[in-house]
Design goal:
The structure is a homodimer of 409-residue chains. In chain A, the strands form eight sheets. Chain A has a six-stranded mixed sheet, with no helix packed on it. A six-stranded mixed sheet of chain A has the order 16-13-17-21-20-18, sandwiched between helices. A five-stranded mixed barrel of chain A has the order 22-25-24-26-28. Helices cover 19% and strands 31% of the residues of chain A. Chain A is elongated. Chain A has 409 residues and is an alpha/beta fold.
Chain lengths: 409, 409
Amino acid sequence: MLTPEEALQQILTHTPILLPETVPLEQAEGRVLAEELFAQSELPPFDNSAMDGFAVRSADVADAGPDRPVKLKMLDVVRAGSLPRLALQPGQAIKIMTGAPIPKGADAVVMKEFTSSTEDDWITIFRAPKKNENIRPKGEDIRVGQSLALSGLRVRPYDVALLAAQGFKMLSVVRKPKVAVLATGDELVSLTEPLAPGKIRNSNGPAIAAFLSRWKVPCRDLGIAGDDPARLEEMLRDAFAFADVLLVSGGVSVGDFDYTKAVLEKSGVREIFWKAAIKPGKPIFYGLKADEGGGKKIVFGLPGNPVSALVCLEEFVRPALEKLQGFTPKHPSYHLQGKAVNAYPKPKDRQQYLFCNARGSENDWELEIIRPQGSAMLGMACQANALAVARIGIDQVCPGDRLPFRWIK
Amino acid sequence: MLTPEEALQQILTHTPILLPETVPLEQAEGRVLAEELFAQSELPPFDNSAMDGFAVRSADVADAGPDRPVKLKMLDVVRAGSLPRLALQPGQAIKIMTGAPIPKGADAVVMKEFTSSTEDDWITIFRAPKKNENIRPKGEDIRVGQSLALSGLRVRPYDVALLAAQGFKMLSVVRKPKVAVLATGDELVSLTEPLAPGKIRNSNGPAIAAFLSRWKVPCRDLGIAGDDPARLEEMLRDAFAFADVLLVSGGVSVGDFDYTKAVLEKSGVREIFWKAAIKPGKPIFYGLKADEGGGKKIVFGLPGNPVSALVCLEEFVRPALEKLQGFTPKHPSYHLQGKAVNAYPKPKDRQQYLFCNARGSENDWELEIIRPQGSAMLGMACQANALAVARIGIDQVCPGDRLPFRWIK
């Protein structure tokens, strides 16, 4: 049986990166760029004022100071968005707004705060600006031809701003996977059906959809296949018609009515692995189906028990979804360490995910392991704020043991 | 002028929590619950098997062991989703699947792995189960009437699973704010217009929309108002007709054409503060407008320079959006510490946000401050992977100084 690390390695090896598509810039946030982008124009596109103030010739006001005002003739006003009509001659100033183009002849801008204008058409300057003071020169930030964004960049809002400033309307980004979710099991009824004796509600569909919504991956919940192999086969056909990723929960264990694996194989899904040395989640299945375009569709068989299904979703499906979208998978990350305050027996040959309450503060977390835990105990899972990991090789967590954990958010 | 902490305090004091709305369970992930929910039924709803195996009377097999097999008559099969037809009598076993109801008379389930069935209708047991072994008792996880989720909970996928299992179809959650975004400035042209001399592209609209999309807050980008007060007033009227939050960028400074504040006031917006002691972003404006229903609309005037606008968006607008949605605002959080490797002068009376490249590893980060920085330099901002904070009171960051920082993602 694969260790969880080996299972994840298999998943990351076999799961491809999807092909690019073109989307409007406004929709590119969080997507992975599939092309390198180069600057089309200088930024700023022209010399412009960094302040509201007066464009001057620095030589004219070289001696200006708080007690040595220099008077200049005010020639004109340049607003942001308009062009200077006149060039500056010695002894003149042009009133200028932030972002407005610097008039010809001017080589500095004096901030409004260091000036006064008591007479019409004349302005008094109380400061000797350095040459180029308060001028944002053309191309200061970006020069034509410069690389703006490398292929593989995950587009951030700041990148959207830069690319908007550069006039990029459409970007080539890695496509998002479309996910189909379906649940098997004759015991399941949907949220809208009455709950007959012996039945339970399908919680995997809504909860998987909730995780995918959080991860911004589009998904369609196809509902419940029951334990009817023919119905499952038909639903798989419908799912493969649109989906890149299929998540089937239930029916992957060893019971007499666990048809899922057999039906998947019949539907052309090749098993990469079945079962991993984890608790909960042992019967997880991962397979591939060749698609007509020469690509691969990804199939996960998740356990039917809801806690197991959701643990497998975060541990194994999320990294696959990240890989498909071109990210370097970073989840889940057990980046915190805590000290168990109570004991918990575990199977020595499996890694156990333990629902805990973490208390304390940075670098001093205590983990209270919730007892008992069970793969169908959603109430138990909802009481937890943290998920800790107890590795293969130990058969008991003892008080004081240090465990890696992450928050359940 | 308010310190950034005082400004944030003002924002959090005046920004209300929105009223609840009812949404389908599937859409509740990440939303804040506006009601306490109580269990409608037991979970599990009936005693059921935790394993595929055989339901037995533990007394019948009390002496069973690997070398002491006990034979039982196989009476029936119970699948998950069906009901047991027969009660167990002494000497009998019923084959049972995971999740299936426990037949009357049985008080333990022996895992399939500890049994063999060489003859039809007879089953050999090699293990003496404890009483109740592998039985998940009715109500083990959740009892009727128990609190499932408190008002104020931010709904997680695990909560969705539990609430689905309990048959909740609709939830009352705090409404999400609708945000209107508009840019002022005669210098701005949209992405689809040609770039005439003296003009620049509106990058604030797309970048603000990108941040809001990341934060899952619906927004409508109303485009560019120019510097025409009448046009701006008309656009504000349209915005207030649907939006809870209005973000106007540009025109909040002290230039002759900075009409935004005046037009906002004319439109019924009451100033709570104008200007904060920060760089970039000093001219930020925050105000409120009473709405007809007795509520308040939130208005931010953001600086026109794109780096300033985006810094203010993350520092001040995001916490307001979190408060509106009923979260405890946690952003932005400067939870890391790094050591500056280079010097940077700053205004002593303002907190400066410094775009940096952070290198190193946990607990040993080096911050290279990008030089020069400017409030319009998007290319500079896109080179950074971290934003550091240099507090009020110091006029120079020196190499070796420790600065709080956060990642720019």
